[in-house]
DNA sequence: CCGCAATGGAACACGACTGTTCCGAATTGG
DNA sequence: CCAATTCGGAACAGTCGTGTTCCATTGCGG
């Protein structure tokens, strides 16, 4: 009753969310007016869908989490060696683009990610420790920090230099692999 | 005439800057009132030293740049192999603490660092390429992004987990070294 | 064609931060 | 002890983002 599944409401709402992701990723202090402008809707309409700023941010987090989950599912973290799995995960995450920057610039900490992530991630790292593809000296939490920071480095490198998306992804994967590999 | 070199003015000014670094590092949207409170001075006094917000931010950048230069000098980027030098640089930068977070959270991009840095940094990387301690496939700009992101990872790891500063530094150095080392 | 839902624009009140002024109190130093 | 400097608090106006209301317009479906 509350929703018109295929109505124009859903489309407008999504347009606002997409614009918000793009704008907020580039400028965390963006105004609601900025978002409305980018979404090509009136500020009044924006308030109609998200009465308060918090509501928009909440929906934004939910949207980001959903896309994050999708990427995580595609990565099949349970397959192959730990190093192979984390490589796939980085690749999928890298493709998230603006969502990635959003998760950084906003204070959307990793704790906000669905609880399942940490367990699955930790299992992947443990498997890597066991199969010799990840240095046992590196705790799972550290590898997670490492991966996120490398992804951020990739996108900031992309923004500052005029590197291609493809080459940058190669650099990210190359360096994450090198960082987690056992020393000798 | 305008300055009393060793007077209390210098001390107050420094107290404000120190407090600003700490506060702004943790919350980029901090109010001038927040900074004044942390510095244990009245907001009026703060305005007396930094008439407008921009003035404070400018001084903040200058202070950060100065500390950055000090750390860079201590690292002796011209000595030993490229990998050794970048290891020392990471170590010195890591010790900057809040200044590091400030450089991230604010939009103080790497371009703002004194021009000498890039040249010296690039020379260091090139030396590493030549002496075989750094993978020639990695451009200097990328290694710089890599290093900064790893430092950020270290401090965020430190904040989220209850790791010791010493262990975290070890992880950072370990992973930067692994990331830049030639693949085999 | 008519009506209802959706939209956009204008105007408004409200609160937060900023920058300024003024004045009394505290500290410093001669 | 006196005087100059430094400081802090209070009050004020100005600006900006927010949230709300009202109304006219558009567009889609029955």
TrEMBL record, chains A, B:
Q: Which PANTHER family match?
A: HTH-TYPE TRANSCRIPTIONAL REGULATOR BETI, HTH-TYPE TRANSCRIPTIONAL REGULATOR RUTR
Q: Which domain of life is it from?
A: Bacteria
Where the record puts its DNA-binding region(s)? 31-50
Endpoints of the signal sequence = none
Which keywords does this Swiss-Prot/TrEMBL entry list?
Answer: DNA-binding, Transcription, Transcription regulation
Where in the numbering of this chain does the HTH tetR-type domain appear?
10-68
Q: What is this protein called?
A: Helix-turn-helix domain-containing protein
InterPro entries in the record: Homeodomain-like_sf (IPR009057), HTH-type_TetR-like_transc_reg (IPR050109), HTH_TetR (IPR001647)
Query: Per the UniProt entry, what species is this protein from, by scientific name?
Result: Actinoplanes sandaracinus
Keyword S-adenosyl-L-methionine applies? no
């Amino acid at each position: 009753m509350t929703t018109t599944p295929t109505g124009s409401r859903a489309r407008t709402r999504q347009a606002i969310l997409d614009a918000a992701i793009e704008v907020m990723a580039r400028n965390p202090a963006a105004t609601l007016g900025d978002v409305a402008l980018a979404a090509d809707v009136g500020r009044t309409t924006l308030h109609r869908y998200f009465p308060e700023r918090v509501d928009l941010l909440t929906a934004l987090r939910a949207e980001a989490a959903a896309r994050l989950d999708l990427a995580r599912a595609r990565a099949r973290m349970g397959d192959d060696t730990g190093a192979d799995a984390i490589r796939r995960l980085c690749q999928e995450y890298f493709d998230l683009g603006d969502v990635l920057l959003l998760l950084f610039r906003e204070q959307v900490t990793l704790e906000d990610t669905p609880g399942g992530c940490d367990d699955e991630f930790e299992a992947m790292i443990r498997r890597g420790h066991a199969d010799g593809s990840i240095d046992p000296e590196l705790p799972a939490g550290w590898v997670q920090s490492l991966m996120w920071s490398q992804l951020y480095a990739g996108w900031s490198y992309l923004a500052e230099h005029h590197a291609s998306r493809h080459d940058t992804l190669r650099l990210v994967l190359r360096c994450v692999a090198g960082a987690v590999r056992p020393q000798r």
